[in-house]
Amino acid sequence: MSIDFKALYPKLINLLLDTVFVVDEFGHIVFVSDACEQLLGYSANEMIDTRILNYIHPDDLDRTLVAIGNVMSGQSHTDFENRYLHKDGSVVQILWSARWSEQDRLRIAVARNVTALRQADQTRNALYRISEAAHAAETLRALCDGVREVIGELFPESDLCLGFYDAAGSLLSVPDWIAGRSGSWIEKPVESGTAIADVINAGQALLASRDPARQGVGLNDLTQPEGANWLGVPLISRDAVLGVLVIESPSPGTRYREADQALLQFVATQLATVVERKRAEERLRFMAHHDALTGLTNRSLFYDRLETALRSANRNEGRLALLYLDVDDFKRINDTGGHEAGDQLLVEIARRLEDCTRETDTVARMGGDEFTVLLTDVHGRDSVETAVAKVYELTALPMNLEGQTFHISCSIGTALYPEDGMTARELLSKADANMYLGKRHAH
Which of these, 23, 196, 212, 277, could form a disulfide with 107 (CB 3.0-4.6 Å)? Predict the structure, then answer.
């Protein structure tokens, strides 16, 4: 039986899963197999006689033109990859095999959709990068900075909002990336009726519309998800919402779809696990260097900071001061109001000491009712006396403890570097001695 291969060829070509394109020397499509509809959403009739360049992603146009020139000069291409735009607006990653027929003056190419493969590569790379960031980052904020880089690669045309949720205050803590202040955070209320609130409250991903007036918040009035330019997914660990990961695009042409949601959800799942671990590490690190009752620097960390400050003052010929403080008649307060009142008193003293010192100073609880304050960059005894007067003033204000009002007083001793000592031991000993000397004079 004879076979008409010429009649059979088009049927065979249209059975291929990959798409066959034939393009003339002017860039017009003269033939395309039926697989084009699965690839780009257009039927063969819609594409024939149109320019192939019309379908290329604008960012890939220049290098595609270079590749076309190479093919038409006789170089075959078997591994060229670029992005095309689907009829529905999505991006399709295509791997090409192409050659030029000089006799027919036609460019013949086979296109394979590798979008899913590249997304799998991106997902695997994202997981690896987040793992890298988790190991390299010493703090939760450093981890956020690493995640920002990963999201920037996965969604280069999108802005990122990453926030951690405080259910008690209905607040989100967001890294301050706009101001560019290293390590700083911004607290924002979670406003009901917004897309970001819906994600947190429902604990589910959401495609929505971007709010042009407020970054990251989103509008929850989207009726057609295919028009979404805002995508939020929750960070969930042990059935609790830790925060939210949001991408949004200011570009009117960007539309997020279920594939983007699945990819961001995967990143969020990995991130939530790492965040939970980082928080636990930070809690342990904080507990190791801070007083459990007041949250102040503890004795160990205070000594480290004092030694560091002394080295800096020595190098720069600077001055610093040390205040040593304890509460007068603390035992009486414990006996009168109970240990709960005593603990409340110590916490209140800690807050008042923090309120009357600068961020560059260090307030520490040394144990019991004894506190120290390290004042850096002081200008002499007059400035130290001013600081001491402020401490006396604040600590003398009445305190309501366990329903009772207490009036307390403190004894404070001071030591100034370098006049009263050159080492941490000398300064602490001098301040401690001055405190007890003042206490004896008061009585």
Answer: 23
* DSSP β-ladder status, 171-175 and 370-376: unpaired
pLDDT on residue 10:
66
Q: What is the pLDDT of residues 244-299, one digit of tens each?
A: 999 998 876 678 888 888 888 888 888 888 888 877 777 787 788 888 888 898 98
Q: What is the pLDDT of residue 377?
A: 84
pLDDT at 43: 94
Q: What tens digit of pLDDT does each residue of 234-251 get?
A: 999 888 898 999 999 887
Q: What is the model's pLDDT at position 71?
A: 92
Collapsing DSSP to helix, strand or coil, 40 comes out as helix
Secondary element (H or E) of residue 108: strand 106-113
- What sections of 73-194 are H helices per DSSP? 115-136, 140-154
Contact by Cβ (8 Å): 66, 75: no
Tokens 């607040």 belong to residue: 171
- Cα angle for residues 271, 277, 282 (degrees, 5° grid): 120
C-alpha distance from residue 317 to each of 309, 314, 359 (Å):
11, 5, 21
What does the alpha-carbon distance between residue 293 and residue 364 come to, in Å, rounded to a whole number? 12
- Kindly report the CA angle at 227 between 224 and 229, in degrees rounded to 5? 130
Q: How confident is the model at residue 113 (pLDDT cuts 50, 70, 90)?
A: very high
**DSSP H or E stretch at residue 243:** strand 240-248
pTM, entire model: 0.54
Q: Residue 57: is its pLDDT beyond 90? A: yes
Q: Residue by residue, what is the 3-state secondary structure of 275-329?
A: HHHHHHHHHHHHHHHECCCCCCECHHHHHHHHHHHHHHHHHHCCCEEEEEEEECC
Distance between CA atoms of residues 441 and 319, nearest Å:
28
CA distance 214 to 222: 16
Please name each of the domains of the chain with its CATH number. Answer: 5-113 (3.30.450.20), 118-284 (3.30.450.40), 299-442 (3.30.70.270)
